[in-house]
Amino acid sequence: MPRVVPDQRSKFENEEFFRKLSRECEIKYTGFRDRPHEERQARFQNACRDGRSEVAFVATGTNLSLQFFPANLLGDQRQVPTRDYVDFERETGKVHLKAPMILNGVCVIWRGWIDLQRLDGMGYLEYDDERAQKQQQPSHSLDL
């Protein structure tokens, strides 16, 4: 299980890295850049339906490999993501995405949307308070 820091909320609210990424900003799909645009569009949609994708925050150059599943189901590779995590129907021509993760020791949820034609959109990180409370490390943990 990935490690979390003791005061996740404080780290999320005070570190510049998280402050920048918690504001909605431009994102781009980064997979298969060497392939023709039409092929990239198809591969992106298929990857979303499989519950994964690669995106980058344009302004910071931060690249993320996302998995669109509830945090406790990441081990089952045959799981199909629900509309809570991958929603092609909310808005025509876009897919809305949600990906919980532990990033730099903090439980967060990546949220965003990507235009299916242009393969860009907007995204941000939000603090995952519910998961952070469940993931707290015991104070007597040992690092080897």
Automatic annotation (TrEMBL):
Signal sequence, renumbered to the chain: none
Xref: SUPFAM superfamilies: Core binding factor beta, CBF
InterPro entries linked to this entry: CBF_beta, CBF_bsu_sf
Subunit structure: Heterodimer with RUNX1, RUNX2 and RUNX3. Interacts with COPRS. Found in a complex with PRMT5 and RUNX1.
Any one GO molecular-function label of the UniProt entry: transcription coactivator activity
Source organism per UniProt: Periophthalmus magnuspinnatus
Gene Ontology process terms (BP): regulation of transcription by RNA polymerase II
Chief place of localization: nucleus
Keyword Nucleus appears in the UniProt entry: yes
Protein name: Core-binding factor subunit beta
Record keywords: Nucleus
Family membership: Belongs to the CBF-beta family.
Subcellular location per the Swiss-Prot or TrEMBL entry: Nucleus
GO CC terms: core-binding factor complex
Function field: Forms the heterodimeric complex core-binding factor (CBF) with RUNX family proteins (RUNX1, RUNX2, and RUNX3). RUNX members modulate the transcription of their target genes through recognizing the core consensus binding sequence 5'-TGTGGT-3', or very rarely, 5'-TGCGGT-3', within their regulatory regions via their runt domain, while CBFB is a non-DNA-binding regulatory subunit that allosterically enhances the sequence-specific DNA-binding capacity of RUNX.
Domain of life, per lineage: Eukaryota
